[in-house]
């Protein structure tokens, strides 16, 4: 290794040593969750998409969810100027959205009934009962603006390899274990800000 390469490696190691990333333990899950999540294909997890406790970069009040669509992170704001950061998949360029909404309801292993406009784009999509084959995964948080369903969700996925990408039809996808963690923390009526 040449001296300049060694210098770059030492600089990178020193810079990373100053990061304050602290992993967050997995939530407790039911036997059904364990069984069904085991049936979802696994993917090589990128360390940047892990679940970490960090200093709050959002400035929002505790209990708020902030989605950074450019960086592809979801932040759950905690007291004490801390957040839990999760890696997410977001809407691709044609289907992405931004705005403020609220969680109107939450569901475990929800059924999925694709909206009519999605059925027009992809005629092969169909109603799917909750379970390992379902694209909504282990949990779903339903986003409303006022009393109107936006048709967007924060949900698990049966395609964990796509976390960190812009690939959805506007929904925010999370690893199943991460959406269970968020589901357990977030209240109905919590504010969700998508930037």
Give the topology:
Layout: H1 3-17, E1 22-23, H2 31-38, E2 52-55, E3 65-68, E4 73-78, E5 82-87, E6 90-91, E7 99-108, H3 116-121, E8 139-145, E9 148-155, E10 166-168, E11 172-173, H4 176-185, E12 191-194
Parallel strand pairs: 3-12, 6-10, 9-11
Antiparallel strand pairs: 1-2, 2-5, 3-4, 4-5, 7-8, 7-12, 8-9
Task: List the main descriptive attributes of the protein structure presented here.
195 residues; alpha+beta; L,D-transpeptidase catalytic domain-like; two-stranded parallel ribbon; 4 helices; 12 strands; 20% helix; globular; glycosyltransferase
Q: In words, what does this structure look like?
A:
It holds the Pfam family YkuD. Pathway: Cell wall biogenesis; peptidoglycan biosynthesis. InterPro entries: LD-transpeptidase (IPR050979), LD_TPept_cat_dom (IPR005490), Transpep_catalytic_dom (IPR038063). This protein is of the alpha+beta class. It has a single domain, classed as L,D-transpeptidase catalytic domain-like (Beta Barrel). It contains 4 helices and 12 strands, in the order H-E-H-E-E-E-E-E-E-H-E-E-E-E-H-E. It is globular, with a radius of gyration of 18 Å.
Quick structural summary:
With 195 residues, this protein is α+β, with helices and mostly antiparallel strands. It has four helices and twelve strands.
């Amino acid at each position: 290794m040449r001296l300049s390469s060694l210098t770059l490696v030492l600089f990178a190691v020193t810079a990373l040593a100053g990061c304050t990333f602290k992993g967050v333990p997995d939530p407790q899950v039911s036997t059904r969750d364990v069984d069904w999540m085991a049936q979802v294909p696994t993917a090589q997890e990128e360390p940047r998409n892990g679940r970490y406790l960090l200093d709050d970069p959002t400035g929002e009040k505790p209990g708020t969810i902030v989605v950074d669509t450019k960086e592809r992170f979801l932040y759950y704001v905690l007291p004490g100027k801390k957040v839990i950061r999760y890696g997410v998949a977001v809407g691709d360029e044609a289907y992405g959205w931004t705005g403020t909404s609220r969680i109107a309801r939450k569901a475990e292993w929800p059924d999925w009934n694709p909206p009519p406009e999605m059925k027009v784009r992809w005629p092969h999509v169909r109603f799917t009962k909750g379970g390992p084959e379902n694209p909504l995964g282990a949990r779903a948080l339903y986003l409303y603006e006022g009393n109107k369903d936006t048709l967007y969700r924060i949900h698990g996925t049966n395609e964990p390899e796509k976390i960190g990408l812009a690939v959805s039809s506007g929904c925010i996808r999370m690893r199943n274990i991460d959406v269970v963690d968020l589901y357990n923390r977030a209240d109905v009526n919590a504010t969700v800000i998508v930037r």
